[in-house]
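Trying the structure run again after the queue cleared.
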Amino acid sequence: MAAFLKTSLQDELDRITQNTRALVQPERLAFSEKTVAELFATGIEDRILKPGSQAPSFSLPDARTGKQVHSSDLIALGPVVLKFFRGRWCPYCVTELETWRDLNSELRSRGALLVAISPQASRQNVFMRDQHTLPFPLLTDAGCRIAEQFGIAYTVTPEQRRYFQSILVNIPFNNAGLNYHNATEDSWRLPLPGTFVINRQNIVTFAEAHADFRVRPEPADVLQALDTAT
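Done. Tokens:
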């Protein structure tokens, strides 16, 4: 693994956190910490789909082709890594997906596919795919309905909505082309950034997601899980 990554993914994410702490006002940092703690306190991490579970089936539109991608077709080709991410507005998500972009050939050498899923609209997925040259499918899970089946979906609270608005992150627009005044509850749905490995028998063999959006699984651990996802 060291031959492919010069540093760990978490080290890269921690640098984003350090830079943020150096630039952002203390009260905003405190609020961000508070929202992470509140999300954790909901018990959402206890509801994450566990290894050994049957993976939910899905059919979602792909940004590259505009066509529906069926989970049954994916697992027919080999093990699948599902990456749930929040959106192109999240620098942690971008860094994680760029890391996996650079590891795509390593995934393919194992006969595996990576598929990235978010609630953001297909148009946003197209922008993200082109801007970051992502070679894997980016699928739109409107309203986080599939993320809900994996146990990682939640609705942004009113207090958090005001915070996102104050930092000019328009989640309803990113997810559904809506503005704050006409946003629906579905347009305020987000997933925990989560990673699931699904074998060819449609069984989850690896599952990791955190209420703290700054924490992501190491690619080495996911690749190790793939080696046993027969």
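The chain has one domain: 9-227. Worth checking whether this holds up in the mutant runs.
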